[in-house]
Amino acid sequence: MNLLQDGEDPNNSIYVSFNRDSSSLAVGTKTGYKIYSFNSTERLDKIHEDNIAIVERLNSSSLVAFVSHSSPRKLRVYHFKKNLEICSHSYSNSILAVKMNRKRLIVCLEGSIYIHTMEDLRISHTIREIPPNPTGLCALSSNDDSCLIAYPCSDKTGEVAVFDCIALQNKNVITAHDNALAAIAFDPAGIKIATASEKGTVIRVYNVLDSTLLYEFRRGYARCVTIYSLAFSYNSLFLCASSDTETVHIFKLEDRNQGRSNEESQSWFGYITRAVSNVLPANMTEVLNQWRSFAIARLPFSRRKNVCGIAMINRSPRVLVASGDGYLYIYDLNENDPGECNLIKQHKLDGIEESENRRPLGM
């Protein structure tokens, strides 16, 4: 994701992306790109290239794909350990997003999506005449047994098209929201897909195979926000959502009655829920059935673009947030104890000027 705010100097552009399991972070700036590993948060490599606009890493491999501001229509694939350019491709319009897994490389333009095979990086298929997609919103499943791409099939409503990149055919269309989409993400198994609309109050999780609604989470009631990113945890048990507010929400994907005694669920709680549902309007009943966040992480700012992820670092779950203020924030996540996540580390991403609006966090 490009974290440049509207109206800011393009020379200060910063692009950040987590890899498949959020175990590393790729950062692109005007001076080049860097790749960070979260095993020890050490920098793996740095390659200089003027005005990097997009950079993506293939899992934990040495393969990266990047686009420069000086050549926004040209994709370059690079092996950074061998210091070798594998190939390059040029397209008819500016590249807005690049996604990779072990089988396919996806290039998203505003009105089309190109699918490349990873064996030879040739174009195997092009999805043409898609609705205007100026942000390049799309998601690619990372599971080796499935290779699905999801993208908006409407610029007015929240419909998600799911396309099989191996069979080269449409899988299904999920009507996820009334408003246009703002964020989408596959879980690691490629079985679930999370969606958020431009309104930003409700986040939904669907079964990719049959479009069944599995979970519905409410980030807030009255406050509309801009959702910047969605990311599942390594075990698909948690889903984090970051926005233009100072709060990152972490939702838990579990049975609603888990942890509640059978006696409680079958007595007063169930009775009240059924009774109220019969009286309230349908939209209010829907709110009652939506889950709130399991945990939250507080950022020292609001209204700055950011990307979130959940990773295992030294065998402990951590919430990661890379922000346009030039910092990576790392929070703890207690999988059994809901509440507020503690900030345990923050790192300055070298080469990025610190925001004047940034407030320091107590540590």
From TrEMBL:
It holds the Pfam family PROPPIN. The keyword Transcription regulation does not apply. InterPro entries: PROPPIN, WD40/YVTN_repeat-like_dom_sf, WD40_repeat_dom_sf, WD40_rpt. Keywords: Autophagy, Repeat, WD repeat. SUPFAM superfamilies: WD40 repeat-like. One of its GO terms (biological process) is autophagy. GO terms for cellular component: cytoplasm. Belongs to the WD repeat PROPPIN family. This is WD repeat domain phosphoinositide-interacting protein 2-like isoform X3.
